[in-house]
Amino acid sequence: MKRLGAILFQIGAYGLFCALVYYWSVNPGYHYLQPHEAEIRVAFKHAAQLKEPCRQRTREELARLPPNMRSAKECSRERSPVIVKLLLDGTFLTRKTFPPPGLHGDGSAFIYAKFSVPAGAHHLEIRMDDSLRQPGFEVSEARTLTLDPGQLLVIAHDVERQGFVFH
Fold it and tell me: 89: alpha, beta or left, given left = phi > 0 and alpha = psi -120 to 50?
């Protein structure tokens, strides 16, 4: 009889524990965004232009190099930082600089930013500068779009057409 009482107590304790875990997993309700908000995410990987242009080596420089290292051009490995500017209805959402990763600063920069914005019609403009040698934003795109409450808009960079893609 003592054994039956211990088993029943154990079943009751486990049941209470499971009920508490279930209750706290659904209450209070978690909402990532407010009911009147949407989210914009900018996410892509981009290899910027080289920081300095390649230089043509002279014949004398080539003659001094070992045969296995004789390449006509000398190029720096370091890349420019990627600058992303995002405007929503004419006001800045962000202007961030993403430095190139890697030991020599020669990797592709990982661009990621997210913003909660009011739902509704907006004019969105994104610009990207990936070269320190050429001033100004070479890649830019503007769109007028309507964001529904709870909608997620992802902006990526399309390398082939040198523009942005809105998903």
Answer: left
- Of 135, 126, 141, 139, residue with least CA distance to 95: 126
pTM exceeding the 0.85 threshold for the entire prediction:
no
Q: Which residues contact 45 (CB under 8 A, 6 or more apart)?
A: 108, 109, 110, 111
Q: Copy the structure tokens of residue 93.
A: 């959402």
Q: Is 40 exposed, middle or buried (0-12, 13-18, 19+ CB in 10 A)?
A: buried
| Tens digit of each residue's pLDDT (9 = 90 or more) over 92-123 | 999 999 999 999 999 999 999 999 999 999 99
Q: Catalogue the long-range contacts made by 142-145 (C-beta closer than 8 Å, 24 or more residues apart).
A: 145/121
Beta bridge partners of 144: 123
- pLDDT tens readout for residues 137-153: 889 999 999 999 999 99
